[in-house]
Amino acid sequence: MDAAFTEEQDEIRRTLRTLLRERCGPDEVKAAVHTAPGYDEALWRRLARTLGLPGLALPTAYGGVGCGVTELALACEETGRVLLPSPLLATAVFAAPLVAAVGTEAQRAELLPRIAEGALTAALAVPGRALPEALGLVGARNSAWAGGGRAGGVQARPDGDGGAGWRLYGQVEQVLGGHSAELLLVAARAGGYTRGRTLLFLVPAGADGVTAGADGLVRTRLTALDATRPQARIELRNVSAELLGVDDGGSGDGAAEALAAVGPAAAAVLAAEAVGAADAALARTVDYVRAREQFGRPIGSFQAVKHRLADVYVAVQAARSAAYYAAWAAAQGGAEGAGAALGGAEGAGAALGGAEGAGAALGGAEGTEAAVAGGLALAQALEAQRMAAAEAVQLHGGIGFTWEHEAHLYFKRAASDELLFGPVHRLRARAAEREGLFGAADRAPYGGHGGRAGNGGQSGHRGHDGPDRRDGRDGRDGRDGRDGRDGPRKAVTV
To answer: CB count, 10 Å around CB of 437?
Structure first.
């Protein structure tokens, strides 16, 4: 891995940082989130048409810039620095990769150029508030999150007119950017209980950002903790939809696999965005403690304040390194996996984002390394973001606790991100599971083989692997605890 960025990557970072510094200060952010779409449409058009931001990781064949996961991560680090409200995450990180990976050639040719030029915004609707599970970042890699039968979610059935159309019925909560997106990608279950499978569907949502679009579609903007990440409830009442890709009629879960394949790159981008927010919160706090005086000296000169900020700095730098490595690993996986089949990467230098193939730009890394690196980087970045936001509020003193101060914007972003994409301990647990660090005994509910054993029993009730002794070592009634339930248990830390 070459840790140095190319001149093009540095230029992307500099250009975007300069533009956002001029057009996206705290006051502009607060004004943008109160508009109907939840973001500054004029700024979004400029970012799309001047910098090609939504098409940064899309191949040139579909009107994109032809860069890769690393460039998109660097861009999102800058947007995270200013907490930019925009459709970038929902459109370019979640929706566009799925269209390119799953869609037919006709669907890609129709949708991707419009996404690349900023003329079309999209959102991914995953039932059950299970976005991190669908992306394979937490939990087991299956499609249980999609519901089916009596489990809720969104149900899909072929249209009764005998054509190729489908009908969707159900409800999805917490769809990022769902209230204003012009296209919805809905994950739904089809085929009944015994032959159920997860499919992705395209639902036109209209251009007014409220309710226009397909008949039976109702979108409601929700009151979110972090107003810079607007969310919506999507209700589908016998809505006509177009299948994304081709249905082979089998019982496999190809759409679920595609979602999980997008996960490593999405995690890397989300980690970079969180690092940008954490770094900005730290910088604002450092500026404040340098200027704020108490007892005739700046409060930043006190040793206790220095130590706290030093801890935040170390956490942010470590998270940044992890995020960059995760982006590199995702780009590598995309270049060697599905991306290579669609054009691949040109040389080793593409590992840091120079991949021109569609799959490589999408970052569909299937390898264990990319998946583990993405999950761990996101966990570390979320922790650093939470730490930086908490110290910003604390060290700003009384003014930091007011809603009028910008510190609360970073605090809300940190809390919201962990609720949406975490929690941290589940991200790490999934990464450890992928890496095979623990066996079945370590994953038992209470750490033992049967989940109840004391310090010597496997089945838990009497410690059946040894004599029926009463000295406590079999976990029966000695100091290790009665029946093995109160004795020391093996601790597993992830």
So the answer is: 13
Q: Which pTM value belongs to this model?
A: 0.82
DSSP bridge pairs for 185:
124, 202
Instruction: Give the pLDDT band of residue 228 (cuts 50, 70, 90).
Output: very high
Residue with tokens 């680090």: 77
More confident position, 482 or 409: 409
Q: Which residues contact 101 (CB under 8 A, 6 or more apart)?
A: 258, 261, 262, 338, 358, 359, 362, 364
Distance of CA 368 to the CA centre of its chain: 18
Q: What distances in angstroms separate CA 425 from CA 378, 382, 430, one per listed residue?
A: 11, 11, 9
Separation CA 428–CA 260 (nearest Å): 16
Those residues whose C-beta lies under 8 Å from the C-beta of residue 396, and which sit 6 or more positions away, are 285, 288, 405, 407
By the 8 A CB rule, do 264 and 70 touch? no
Most distant CA pair in the chain: distance in Å? 81
Q: What are phi and psi of 2, to 5 degrees?
A: -95, 115
Share of the chain above pLDDT 70, in %: 75
pLDDT digit string (tens) for 440-467? Answer: 555 544 333 343 334 344 444 433 444 4
